[in-house]
Predict the structure.
Amino acid sequence: MDKSKLDELVAATHKARDARELGYREQALKLYPWICGRCEREFTRENLHELTVHHRDHDHDNNPPDGSNWELLCLYCHDNEHQRLLEADRQGGAGADRPGTGGATHNPFADLKSLLKKG
């Protein structure tokens, strides 16, 4: 594929993504209060550009009109959410929010009674 056709394809892909995002973002901002769903930071028109739409199932094409696959997150919480997903995938898919995960196994209080008797 020559460079001009590749450039056209990339430009068309970006344009389609921007149009899709504008549609569901505008819908989500009408449905939900302008508050980050994690840190509860409140937003105004002045800083609304820092509030993003997160797809709960991570499928950006799943945009039901009732907003059930969306949550509003600030830039920082949104980045954190995606970082957690990447780390879970690196560890074999065992994320903290996924069923069947091992979670923490260390119990710092397991031998507390004997430790207190020693002191």
Summary: The radius of gyration is 21 Å.
